[in-house]
Specification:
Belongs to the cation diffusion facilitator (CDF) transporter (TC 2.A.4) family. SLC30A subfamily. By secondary structure, the protein is mainly alpha-helical. Helix content is 68%, strand content 11%. It has 2 domains: 189 residues, Alpha-lytic protease prodomain-like (Up-down Bundle); 79 residues, Alpha-Beta Plaits, CATH 3.30.70.1350. It has a 3-stranded mixed sheet with strand order 1-2-3.
């Protein structure tokens, strides 16, 4: 329902933006477009991931579809921000007259749509990272709608032609930091970097401190998709150590201390560990 509300009022804002030459309304409409596209891609990615279980050829299924959708959304956001800035630069010196009343209607409509979507997504944001992302996007859109309202009020009361352009640029720039964060997080996952905020060196030290563990090597920790961290490691055990107990202790530490539920651990003796040192990577 939140997707339908956003799409409806996005069309309304685009119509008013082109009819009035309002850059503030156009900026907010394009921002809402990215939200609609982002929600659609995230929804499609979730459905694809659920319907396409892992197979022998796709051992992780389509979990990464969500990450690719997020990266595509970030690219779209960058393009939108660039377009708004380009339009603003082209209007310097000769700002067009903007009809304040239609822009005011667009601002009120956009604000109402964002409030409705905000209320619809609020409860689900506590359970799903995808929905929480959409929830935060809608929250940010509220600021854009307030900006459009402010632009309309200034135009109607003072008649300052630059107000619409300045607020339009401000809304466009508001998108950029969140876009950068979204793109960075997506690329970290796609490049299989360690999860943000996780000290892998500390994880290694914790595992090596377990009773019976002599050495930890080939430790890898990465994110499969949002909220799904995965780890693999080789644990070299001391002579006489119980391999089952070492394995159980390591899995418990990873799950309880670092919230890594899916860990593939190989227990090996000193002789087996020598072969790992011979590998080139």
């Amino acid at each position: 329902m939140a997707l339908g509300i956003g799409a409806t009022f996005m069309v309304l804002e685009f119509a008013i933006a082109f009819a009035t030459s309002s850059l503030a309304t156009l900026s907010d409409a394009t921002h809402m477009l990215t939200d609609v596209v982002g929600l659609s891609m995230a929804l499609g990615a979730i459905m694809l991931a659920k319907r396409s279980a892992p197979t022998y050829t796709r051992t992780y299924g389509y979990y990464r579809a969500e990450v690719l959708a997020a990266l595509a959304n970030a690219v779209l956001l960058f393009a939108v921000a660039g377009y708004v800035l380009y339009e603003a630069i082209s209007r310097i010196g000769e700002p067009p007259e903007v009809a304040g009343f239609p822009v005011l209607i667009a601002g009120i409509a956009g604000l109402g749509a964002n409030i409705a979507s905000f209320l619809l997504l609020r409860s689900g944001a506590k359970e799903s990272l995808n929905i929480r992302g959409a929830y935060l996007e809608v929250l940010a859109d509220l600021i854009g709608s307030v900006g459009v309202l402010l632009s309309a009020v200034i135009t109607l009361t003072v008649g300052w032609l630059y107000a619409d352009m300045i607020i339009g640029v401000a809304i466009g720039l508001w998108v950029l930091p969140r876009t950068y964060i979204l793109a960075r997080r997506s690329l970290r996952i796609l490049f299989q970097h360690s999860p943000e905020g996780l000290d892998v060196e500390l994880v290694s030290s914790t595992l090596q401190a377990l009773p019976g563990v002599e050495d930890v090597h080939d430790l890898h920790v990465w994110t499969l998709t949002s909220g799904m961290e995965v780890a693999s490691a080789h644990l070299t055990t001391a002579a006489g150590a119980n391999a089952d107990e070492v394995l159980r202790s390591a899995q418990e530490v990873l799950a309880n201390d670092y919230h890594i539920e899916h860990a593939t651990l190989q227990i090996e003796g000193m002789d087996s560990a020598k072969r790992c040192n011979e590998l080139s990577w």
